[in-house]
């Protein structure tokens, strides 16, 4: 049983929950940028939460199964059509063999997750089927003509038809915990970080969300030795505007981190699209 990719939109990749625990050998976690939505999509079709699915950036995916499949779409809500007939997000859908499943452009949010009952059964690399766009680990980014194997269906069955889930917010509010290098910045910098909004720029990707807004002034000017980085790290390069690291972030960095966004809010950040405003709240 396979899924043929007919179109991908701007970017479509295979993602699970990534490769945790390998930063010591220089391998980042990667995985779904919005892990909350991936977990929900898999639960809806009866998969284990870590089963590989398709992460779709800004819609445009078109796929066709060779046999009847059960799917669910979560994350950024976008128009869904099965052979031209509309369907609902956050719901269990049946796609007949040979039918085209087509995703439109989401009105809000950025990344959608298409889970197939049985999972996308591509070859794992270091224990994960995730595509890491920074390191190149994992399967290639999806291209038209790609054929994706689907794994055997799990023993358990879907237990709900629709999940009552709120869509992505129009205004993104992210909690941030100061440190570990907050002392490298002036008190005014910390105040600026939480008192004015930042705009998501078009340079953002799965590696990090580049922000434009108030400049964060440093109190120390010396170089910082490279140190470990995590998803959610708010790193500030010399220009003074922060970058929020997402799923495919580097494992080390040499610019000071003024604060760290908790994992639950990193999933919210992954749905922010260029031009949206982001507000930080200190915890």
From TrEMBL:
Q: Where is the Carboxyltransferase domain?
A: 24-282
Keyword tags = ATP-binding, Hydrolase, Nucleotide-binding, Transferase
Concerning Gene3D superfamilies, the annotation shows: Cyclophilin-like
Q: Among its keywords, does the record have ATP-binding?
A: yes
GO MF, one example = transferase activity
Q: Which Pfam families match?
A: CT_A_B (PF02626)
This chain belongs to which protein, by name? Biotin-dependent carboxyltransferase family protein
Q: Which organism is it from?
A: Saccharopolyspora karakumensis
């Amino acid at each position: 049983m396979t899924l043929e990719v007919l179109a991908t939109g701007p970017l479509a990749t295979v993602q699970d929950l990534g490769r945790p625990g390998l930063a010591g050998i220089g391998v980042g976690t990667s995985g779904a940028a919005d892990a909350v939505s991936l977990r929900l999509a898999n639960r809806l079709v009866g998969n284990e939460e870590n089963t590989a699915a398709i992460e779709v950036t800004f819609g445009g995916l078109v796929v066709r199964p060779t046999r009847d499949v059960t799917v669910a779409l979560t994350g950024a809500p976008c128009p869904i059509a099965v052979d031209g007939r509309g369907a609902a997000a956050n719901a269990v859908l049946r796609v007949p063999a040979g039918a085209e499943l087509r995703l439109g452009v989401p009105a809000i949010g950025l990344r959608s997750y298409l889970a197939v009952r049985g999972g996308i059964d591509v070859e794992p690399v270091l224990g994960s089927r995730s595509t890491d766009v920074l390191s190149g680990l994992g399967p290639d980014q999806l291209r038209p003509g790609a054929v994706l194997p689907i794994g055997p269906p799990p023993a358990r069955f879907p237990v709900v038809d629709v999940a009552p889930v709120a869509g992505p917010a129009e205004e993104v509010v992210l909690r941030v915990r100061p440190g570990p290098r907050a002392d490298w910045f002036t008190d005014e910098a910390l105040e600026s970080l939480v008192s004015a909004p930042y705009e998501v720029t078009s340079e953002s990707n799965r590696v990090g969300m580049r922000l434009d807004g108030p400049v964060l002034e440093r109190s120390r000017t010396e170089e910082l030795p490279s140190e470990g980085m995590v998803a959610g790290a708010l790193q500030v390069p010399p220009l003074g505007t922060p970058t929020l690291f997402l799923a495919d972030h580097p494992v080390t960095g040499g610019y000071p981190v003024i604060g760290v966004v908790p994992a639950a809010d990193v999933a919210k950040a992954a749905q922010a699209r260029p031009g949206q405003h982001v507000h930080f709240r200190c915890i």
